[in-house]
Write a structure and sequence with these properties.
It contains 5 helices and 18 strands. It is mainly beta. It has one domain: membrane protein fhac: a member of the omp85/tpsb transporter family (Porin, Beta Barrel).
């Protein structure tokens, strides 16, 4: 399940798996709760809104508990094809008197494309007790058609494809508690199953990897740590964001495979005047043990990096780093330019001695959907080593 570069909300990394990757896509869509500022963020953003808008917002907050968000978003992915991602979400406060916690959200999203891929997800995020607890849960089910190129950078560069169809479902749940210095820490559970079959066509030169079996079940226990000092998560102009997830899959939990998955992301933002922002992101993925091919790190997912078909480059380790320049224009428009480099490798030493790095760059257009919160509709085109991608979404890439 390979969403490539279509949508982006705050990260909810599960496992880097073709069978699970659309969960990343759909959970990111559902995560609209994190795209509504907390009360402290609203104070920072108040200068953006007009006096009439602020008055209207206060009146609406008193008279209604929440707000629905509905959007049919186009998808054009070299991995999944062309189609639509219908999204519906409900944003609300669990406790109306709690003005510290960000709004909570319940939502659903789907994927329908012209290559036969069909999927849906439902989930929610609750922010409780004056932003002391964050609780999230989501369920996914669907079938995705995609191409496997093999394991390793050389296999991805060779370009030989093995068409696959993967049916599956997955459940993710996590609870985080606030500690000191804005850190949130807590446990998470991930469980799912998938069935993989080969579609007609393709090349027999692609090595059939471990994990290409029917009825595979994976279950993991893990933890998550994050820290967010951005005044506005929708359009950060300053601050930093750090996120670390670790998932431990074990046969004792019911998994067919025993392995470990680690992911870390760091972003920093600088503003130059009122209209210019420079954003930096670094990403790392690593696996240990004996994962199936779809349990490895997959390049091009979650906008790391844009310009690559998700799933073309797969290996045990992955790094990516990128820089983006953002400029606000009149009439709610904006433009961005970005570039980065990364790679995949079977081990840490190979990054320094034998890895062929994978550069990418491109630009995009922005349109401000909400002047109050500076939420942008995003359209990006990016070029990588093997071609280009086009993606649309809500909120920034990182």
């Amino acid at each position: 399940m390979l969403p490539a570069t279509t949508l982006r909300f705050p990260d909810h990394s599960l496992i880097g798996a073709p069978a699970i990757l659309v969960v990343l896509l759909l959970l990111n869509v559902i995560s609209v709760g994190q795209t509504t500022p907390s009360s402290s963020q609203q104070g920072t953003l108040s200068t953006v809104a007009s006096a009439s808008t602020k008055s209207s917002d206060k009146q609406n907050e008193k008279t209604r508990r929440g707000e629905f968000v509905v959007a049919p978003i186009p998808i054009s992915s070299p991995a999944l094809g062309t189609g639509i991602v219908p999204v519906v979400g409900y944003i609300f406060r669990v406790d109306r008197e709690d003005k510290v916690s960000p709004p909570s959200v319940l939502g659903a999203a789907g994927v329908i494309t012209n290559n036969g891929s069909r999927a849906f997800a439902v989930g929610g995020q609750l922010y409780l007790k004056r932003d002391t607890y964050h609780a999230s849960a989501a369920f996914f089910q669907g079938n995705l058609n995609y191409n496997l190129y093999g394991i390793g950078a050389s296999a991805g560069s060779a370009g030989f494809q093995l068409p696959l169809k993967q049916d599956g479902s997955a459940f993710l749940g996590e609870v985080l508690r606030k500690l000191k210095w804005k850190f949130f820490v807590g446990p998470r559970i991930l469980t799912g199953h998938s069935s993989i079959t080969r579609r007609p066509g393709g090349s027999d030169r692609v090595l059939i990897p471990t994990g290409l079996t029917l009825n595979t079940k994976l279950t993991a226990l893990g933890f998550r740590i994050n820290r967010d000092s951005r005044p506005n998560r929708f359009y950060p102009e300053s601050g930093t964001f750090f996120d670390l997830t670790s998932d431990f899959f074990a046969t004792g939990l019911g998994s067919k495979y025993s392995f470990q998955s680690y992911r870390a992301s760091f972003s920093k933002y600088w503003s130059f005047g009122k209209k210019q922002v420079l954003a930096y992101n670094a990403y790392f993925c690593g696996t240990g043990g004996e994962p199936p091919f779809y349990g490895n790190c997959i390049y091009g997912t979650n906008n790391e990096l844009r310009g690559y078909e998700a799933g073309r480059y797969i290996d045990r380790y992955m790094v990516a780093t990128q820089l983006e320049y953002r400029l606000d224009l009149p009439k709610r428009f904006g433009i961005v330019g970005f570039g980065g480099v990364g790679g995949v490798a079977p081990g840490a030493r190979e990054f320094f001695y034998s890895t062929a790095f994978l550069p990418a760059g491109g630009g995009g257009l922005r349109f401000m959907l909400s002047k109050t919160y500076h939420v942008n509709l995003r359209a990006d085109i990016a070029a990588g080593k093997n071609g280009h991608t086009f993606g649309m979404g809500v909120s920034e890439a990182f």
